[in-house]
Amino acid sequence: MKKSTATLRAENYPHDNGEWFCEFNYRNVKGLGKEEGVVRRDPSAVILVDGLYYVWYTKSEGDFNSKSENIYDKQFPWDYADIWYATSKDGYDWEEQGVAIGRGGQGSYDERTVCTPEILAHDGKFYLVYQCMDKDGKYRGTYETVALAAAEHVCGPWTKSKEPILTRREDGHWLDDYETYNDQVFEGTVHDPTLFFYNDKFYLYYKCALQKDKQNKPDFAGTNTRWGAAIADKVEGPYIPSEYNPITNSGHEVIMWQYKDGMAALLNREGPERDTIQYAKDGINFEIMSRISHSPGAAGLFRNPEADKAPLEGLRWGLWHPPYEEREGRWDYIRRFDIRPKYLQN
Ligand code: AAL
Q1: Could you read off the pLDDT of 58-72 as tens digits, one per residue?
Q2: What value, to the nearest 5°, has the Cα angle with vertex 127 and ends 43 and 79?
Q3: From residue 243, how far is each of 113, 138, 150, 172 by CA, in Å?
Q4: Is the minimum distance from the CB of 191 to ligand 1 under 6 angstroms?
Q5: In this predicted model, what pLDDT tens digit does every residue of 167-180 receive, in sequence order?
Q6: Mean pLDDT of all residues in 127-142
Q7: CA 38/CA 345 separation, integer angstroms
């Protein structure tokens, strides 16, 4: 008996039937579903506060034209957006509550849009991190910044950071690239911020992309994305980008949860390791734990207080928005996903 190259290679693949593997069920929810002329997308994590579930998300109205020459026209669904929130008693039936974070005044760093929020409940307080664009935001939002808002109560009022806490960088490069991008700018984009209190510090993870694509045009951060981390001693910053950035070689919207002493991640859509679940014992150096398929895009995970019970408890259920290819109609809307029960450990 001899072993073929493919067999030898397969012996090193992570097993797909282990405790890190799962499949997903999808269903519509009430209150955040399809609505003509209204965009609801990029839901935050879902948190449970005094018996009620809370979620924050991007909301905008009206049509957009990504080909418009006028940079002040609405160019994409998350342009001229605000961050809204909704509550639910059961995670299926949602009630929209209103604006949590509105766009800023004239000349502010967030005059044009605030979108793609993520929530952290820590030490009795609440923090939202999100993307912002100033008035001239262009190139499909590639040049957004990340801001932070804090509140004593889950329903606000929210106090915004005076300045963004993270901006795109024009120094640094992809390291050890699997394609020859070495003359390119790393973190030309910082999107999809996700904040954790981890190892007594604040870890801000985000999607990053090159500044230019292979044709030397602005990279719209839709392809060839990876993730970065920036770490701070205090929640307000300063956030210092990790020397290891990029910490993934794949993945689009940042989808992460804490498991025991490490960080778990679901990487989707982009790169050679798309559709994998990964784990980093130190929050930085990720290893592939399983390969999955049909994963939820832009997922906001339920922050399960029992996440340490098993690797995928922190991914048990959440909200997400279907990408263009998979949805009915033109307008973005939010759905729910659940890990199929047979993959749950308890
Ligand atoms: C999303 C996220 C970011 C992008 C856009 C809105 O799914 O990756 O938020 O900027 O698309």
Answers
A1: 999 999 998 888 889
A2: 45
A3: 30, 29, 28, 10
A4: yes
A5: 887 654 444 344 44
A6: 82
A7: 38
